Amino acid sequence: MPENSVLQKINTKKFQHDLVNWYNTEKRDLPWRRERDPYKIWVSEIMLQQTRVDTVIPYFNRFIDQFPTIESLANADEEAVLKAWEGLGYYSRVRNLQSAVKEVSEQYGGAVPADRNEFLSLKGVGPYTGGAVLSIAYGLPEPAVDGNVMRVLSRILTIWDDIAKPSTRKVFEEAVRHLMYEEDPSSFNQALMELGAMICTPTSPACLLCPVQNHCQAFEEGVQRELPVKTRKKSTKKIHMGALVLRAPDGTVLIEKRPESGLLAKLWQFPNMELPAGTNPRGALMSFTEEKYGITVRIAPEKVMEITHVFSHLTWEIDVYTGIVEEKKQKDQAIFVPEDNVETYAFPVSHQKIWKHVKGMDS
Ligand code: SF4
Q1: 3-class secondary structure, 330
Q2: Is the whole-model pTM more than 0.85?
Q3: What would the DSSP string read from start to end of 86-106?
Q4: Residue 2: its pLDDT value, please?
Q5: Given this model, what pLDDT does residue 100 score?
Q6: Are 217 and 157 a contacting pair, CB within 8 Å?
Q7: Catalytic one among 45, 86, 142, 173?
Q8: Is 45 in the active site?
Q9: In the chain, which residues have pLDDT < 50?
Q10: With CB atoms 3.0 to 4.6 Å apart as the test, which of 154, 173, 208, 213 could cross-link to 227 if both were Cys?
Q11: Ligand 1 mean position to 163 CA, how many Å?
């Protein structure tokens, strides 16, 4: 049993009962909650990482319509998969998901493995996703500990370990194993997640409405707002960039594919470059397009928009210009596409915004 005095004195049966009963009566009706298909639950869990439920719902429905089975996703064209994910961000999630379902299709006859070690060996499946899918789809008593669950349990059990440290997850996994409602691990794990989403929220926990208030040590001590302990991340790096929407006289637009690996790998984008401090953006962009694509361009004198895009580790501040290409030349991963086809390619959110803005200027 983990060394936590609160954990040892908690009435586990009563806690399980209060939590799961509340969940069964109050839970939100979400599309993936109507499913027991491990593949669909897996998709939902991958989408829900770093993304809000309201945002995920339409993406989930569309994705499952388009790729309803393991086989359909395993055999899908990668470009179509990226397009279906466009706007959700963190694209490595979907690339890993597709690699993993290919492995499930080839190694496990298309059935998501119910064995913890096998499932966790798949690409992109970490302890949280593993625990969530195995408990929800297969009813296995596996902990599913993410930041949300750590917040809730840090309060209930007054755990003061720093949740920003990767090693702290183990403390919470042990606590969940101790508290686990073995009769229904699916509802138990989802109840903890639901409590974190609806009641025990980051800045203003609704303790007066909380179904487990009687079990909560932080509430008893009045320290719920001091938990969880989380050290601040270092501030993110800022990169100043210039991007260009370039049209040829026949109305086509220049886009290029990003590299095979790294940030936003294989998505499409408008030509862009980092602008070192003190450079003249138009001059730099003109030389850049000439060197990179072998084309001469005329760039409009004023930028048409500024856009800021924040990633977890860096921020792009992009000045957007438009321009005309006198002569079309295609090179490497850069292609000219008819204007009406631009939206059929998968772009990162920042470049979707660029296109929306520039297209809006024409109408
Ligand atoms: Fe969270 Fe308050 Fe409930 Fe404790 S009583 S679990 S702090 S909402």
Answers
A1: coil
A2: no
A3: TTS--THHHHHHHHHHHHHHH
A4: 52
A5: 98
A6: yes
A7: 45
A8: yes
A9: 1
A10: 154
A11: 17
